[in-house]
Amino acid sequence: MTLADRLDDIGKPAWIAVTVLGFILCWPVGLVILGYLFGSGRIMGCWSSQHYGPERWQRRMERWQRGVERMQQGLERMQQRAAQWTGPIRSSAYPSSGNRAFDEYREETLRRLEDEQREFLAFLDRLRHAKDKAEFDQFMAERRGAGPSPQPGY
User: 6 — alpha (psi -120 to 50), left (phi > 0) or beta?
Assistant: First the structure.
């Protein structure tokens, strides 16, 4: 695959970037690239008849397909690398350490911590309920002590 094909896969922004870079490095190189782009019809495609018709759309679809395939391959590589670090997924939350006594201790400790967490959350819920009840009782006591609210006059 040539450099031109790779830049065509990326699209016009890549050609524009290469042209600008060519002008920055050495202006004659930028002119040569610009001439190549105009001559090949990559920039001003409306001047050449090769950019009309189903062939144009076929090339675009092939380019899209190659891009999708590259993206899928990249995702597969990332999944393989992630599997190397995480290992296969097991049925339990934590993989076995190889020591049954430690695994049993860990499971029992985690179970105990989960129970304590549940009890603490229940305690917080009761505490919130008691606070809400105290505030509501205070509001009702103040309301009873104030009597009926005055009606606005017209």
Answer: alpha
Three-state DSSP class for residue 147? coil
Angle between helices 3-10 and 12-25 (to 10 degrees): 120
Q: Whole-angstrom Cα distance, residue 102 to residue 120? A: 26
pTM to 2 decimal places: 0.33
- Cα–Cα distance measured from residue 30 to residue 128, given in angstroms and rounded to the nearest whole number: 72
User: Which two structure tokens, joined as six digits, stand for 88?
Assistant: 């296969």
Q: Which residue has the tokens 């990332």?
A: 78
3-state secondary structure of 7: helix
| pLDDT tens by residue, the chain, 154 residues | 777 777 777 777 887 888 898 889 888 888 888 888 877 766 655 544 455 566 777 888 888 888 889 988 988 888 888 777 765 444 456 777 888 899 899 999 999 999 999 999 999 999 999 999 999 999 999 999 865 555 555 5
Q: Is 15 exposed, middle or buried (0-12, 13-18, 19+ CB in 10 A)?
A: buried
What contacts 53, CB < 8 A, 6 or more positions away? none
Residue 51: phi and psi, rounded to 5, are -95, 10
